[in-house]
Amino acid sequence: RKEAEARQAELRLEMEQQRKLEVERQKAALERQHSEALRQASASLRALETYRRLGQRLTTLRLKTYIQGFRLTKTEFDEYERIRSECRAEMARSGEDAEGWWVVAKASEMRGELGKAIEAYDKGLAKNPDHGMCLLDKARLLIELSLSTLGKPEDRQEALHLLERGGKTRAVPEIELDLARANVLAMTSPDEAVRR
Fold this sequence. Notes:
The chain is mostly helical. Helix content is 84%, strand content 0%. The radius of gyration is 28 Å and the shape is elongated.
């Protein structure tokens, strides 16, 4: 009888130790998950801050380029490449993001690399189909292309489709949509405009 009680006491002690070990394993797993979630949140915040900073540099440089009549110096041309490279490096660290692809697209567009710009807008829209600036700026670029010999006949239709998506999702301010639509109408023949 004493042996049976001793064996039961050993089993209870063993079960209690196993339960404590399991609790410790679960606690460690939760701590790892929490730590990973914090790391990811920190990386996302760092990435957003980087995209914001690069977007500001891009805007400043675009204004300077505009004031100069869109004549780029070698220094400015190289700065657009640095912005694009820094953005790609951040996306390699933190994961691809629509905001990052928008910065890459605008820098490519300003360098005159329109195919790369469209590709970057498409990647941004693949990450977030409602990203307002990707929708609007790709539509604007397609409108410009449709006015040139570089454009394709379907560019105007795709631009209108992008603007429509931006309006439905409220991702693009209405005034921006109206201005872009006005550009499309301005290049439409009177017969075509009546049909719309």
